Amino acid sequence: MDTRSEPDDSASLDRLQLLAAQDNSALLRSEERYHKMVEEVEDYAILLLDPNGRIMNWNKGAEKIKGYKEAEIIGRNFRIFYRPEDQERQLPEQLIQRARSTGKAIHEGWRVRKDGTTFWGSVVLTALHDDLKNVIGFSKVTRDLTERKVAEDKIQQYAKELEAQNRDLQQFAYAAAHDMKEPLRKVQFYTSSLLDGIGTQLPPKEKSYLERTVDAAHRMQGLIEDLLTYTRISGEVPPFEEVALTSLLEEVLSHHQETIESINAVIEADPLPVVPGITFQLRQLLDNLIGNALKYHHREKIPHIIIRSTFDNGKQNIIIQDNGIGFEPQNCKKIFEMFERLHGRESYPGTGIGLALCQRIVQNHHGTISATGQVGEGATFTITLPIAEAE
């Protein structure tokens, strides 16, 4: 029998055993490095739980975040980290069950340290399975996000306080404006009576003073009415309903019919969509924009107003374009500021609240409004609103 191959087979076997030993050694070193890495992590509490939620191991991050030494906590149920009210409603058991059935449970909430203080923890609980897909335990990773939670709570508190202050301010503005109406009516009545009565007998200078007083009282009345409208629009937003903008536009154009005829304005209007909104606010929006287009018409042109609608990216655009006096392009955002006026009161009366009111209405409807213009060429206002959802 030829046995010359036996030394080679023996050498091959030795090499295989050596490679296997090296692989086992490398695997052991890899596992040691992995466990060392988990153990040394300090920003995260990393735990291993058995299938019933008892703690099997404990890293430095868990000791830092939760306050327990490893010897104090191993073998205890992770329920200990939850507040009594959370334990009573069985939140830990719910998370375990969720991880068992879906593979993972994610939760944020207040947790309890060893000394009884609480922290805001972000938790990921992951089910661990054997080769037969049986749950053999859970990994639990917790991060302390108390600073973020405190900052968010402060922001929410500031927002609530600011909302309350704004509400109080709106109520005060409304009450103040409303209370000014009655004495102002008396000023208007008496000054107008004087002007109609003895106005013709007054010297030109004194008559001019009285006329200016009447005019100032009239402008003050307009300002008060606009302020009352603005505070009403800025208050609590009522429930939305489906609003047919074509019908509202017809009402607005009818309201301005006398002005349209007096300046021979040409109105081109496409059918407008139905949008979710507040009827009286959207009527006010169209009324202000159409009124402005008529008021600021170019005296050397036939006034031409185009009203159209486009659909883009799930939004409805309402475009109102005129060929009036326009404005400087750099003022496209400035014109929406409260009391902002780009033209003299003598030529174009108004309070400077109209476009600020338009912007507030559009914001109430979760939309946007923008303007473009050129001096002497006209202005274009684009309102973007959500569309009504199909049933």
From TrEMBL:
PROSITE patterns: HIS_KIN, PAC, PAS. GO terms for molecular function: phosphorelay sensor kinase activity. It comes from the Bacteria. It catalyses: ATP + protein L-histidine = ADP + protein N-phospho-L-histidine. Residues 30-103 form the PAS domain. Its EC number is 2.7.13.3. CDD domains: HisKA, PAS. Pfam families: HATPase_c, HisKA, PAS_9. This is histidine kinase. It comes from Chitinophaga silvisoli.
